[in-house]
Amino acid sequence: MADDMVEENSSDPDTMTSSQCTQSPDSDLAPLQHCKLCLGEFPLEKMTVISQCHCIFCSLCLKQYVELLIKEGLETGISCPDSACPKQGQLQESEIESMVAADVMQRYKRLQFEREVLLDPCRTWCPSSSCQAVCQLKEAEVSVPQLVQCPLCSLRFCSACRGDWHTGRACRDSLPIITFLPGENSSVCKSEEDEPSIKRCPKCKVYIERDEGCAQMMCKNCKHAFCWYCLESLDDDFLLIHYDKGPCRNKLGHSRASVIWHRTQVVGIFAGFGLLLLVASPFLLLATPFILCCKCKCGRGDDDPLPT
How confident is the model at residue 1, as a pLDDT? Predict the structure, then answer.
């Protein structure tokens, strides 16, 4: 009878020991993870780990970061958002596809393909804006100009200067407008109204479309600034003097007042830095002996007396 009572009490949940029924309320809570992008704290299920470098970010921030890069077309290889990432990891295509919409992923694949063609010496784009097919070059003659015929529109062009094929003649020094239609002579002069809307960056050769705005262009791929009409570099032309003379005179696309205001701002910035340096120079001269004295004291040690 006593044995039955012991068995009954041991099976009663109310008589369980405190070690069996008492647990810390925090033991079931997983630690929150820190996101370096938004500086927030989130549970693990709301975080995404990059497989290549094992850096972790909240899924929303990483998704917005990837979508922004694809939208801007800055690069085809999307690197880890952490600038101090020790492995400099990159997101795999499967990871990108799992976090963005189908149309965004399609744009990413197109940018990736365009970069592959750009970096491949044996492939080039058809220079016709109405075609834009990929043409194959002869691998043995890649280093010299060769005749290329587009497989889609049958346009015949030079692989070096992108102009009409010129048998026995050297390539032109400057690249012409490369958006001529099939059968159209690319050397024909065009008026400003007939200016094509697609050209190539003179530095990295990426296609750029201009639908509106001024003639000062900046390539998103290589950050090169140039004139849309003559493709001349504007990297060092902060005051846009290029549009005061020559064939591109008054073709910037802004009013004279806005150009003067732009130049005033640029000059004001440089003048401000110069004035700040001028005002601060006396204080720097006065502080130099104290700085040298402190360095000398630190070099001698804290127990050494000050120099007399």
Answer: 45
The superfamily (CATH) of domain 32-111 is Zinc/RING finger domain, C3HC4 (zinc finger) (3.30.40.10)
> How deeply is 37 buried, as exposed, middle or buried, from its count of CB atoms within 10 A (0-12, 13-18, 19+)?
middle
Is residue 294 part of the annotated active site? The answer reads no
Find the catalytic residue in 53, 85, 131, 214. Answer: 214
- On average, the pLDDT of the chain sits at 76
**Angle formed at CA 132 by CA 131 and CA 135, multiple of 5 degrees:** 110
User: In 10 A of CB 111, how many CB atoms?
Assistant: 18
Long-range Cβ pairs for the range 52-55 (8 Å, 24+): 52/80, 52/87, 52/89, 52/90, 52/91, 52/92, 53/80, 53/85, 53/86, 53/87, 53/88, 53/89, 54/87, 54/89, 55/80, 55/81, 55/82, 55/85, 55/89
Q: Could you read off the pLDDT of 51-110 as tens digits, one per residue?
A: 999 999 999 999 999 999 888 776 568 889 998 898 888 999 999 999 999 999 998 888
Which of 46-60, 115-129, 182-196 has the largest mean confidence?
46-60
- Give the pLDDT of residue 95: 92
**Tokens at residue 18, please?**
């405190």
pLDDT of 275 > 90? The answer is: no
- The torsion angle over the Cα atoms of residues 159, 163, 167 and 171, rounded to 10 degrees, is -80
The model's pTM is 0.49
Domain residue limits, the chain: 32-111, 120-168+175-185, 255-301
Q: Which of 219, 226, 223 is nearest to 174 (CA)?
A: 226
Tell me the longest C-alpha to C-alpha distance in the chain. Answer: 117
- The answer to whether residues 15 and 9 touch, using CB atoms and an 8 Å cutoff, is yes
